[in-house]
Amino acid sequence: KTMSLRREHEAQMKIMVHEHQDELRKVQEELELQKSK
């Protein structure tokens, strides 16, 4: 039972990391837009 809990936790961590990378990409794109002005 603990194994499935750990696997579930890892899945949630991967989702969080993926969402975080998405946010970072948006921020970087906005910075690039401001630079090009």
Automatic annotation (TrEMBL):
Residues 10-37 form a coiled coil. The keyword Coiled coil applies. Keywords: Coiled coil. The keyword Coiled coil applies. This is Uncharacterized protein. It comes from Nymphaea colorata (pocket water lily).
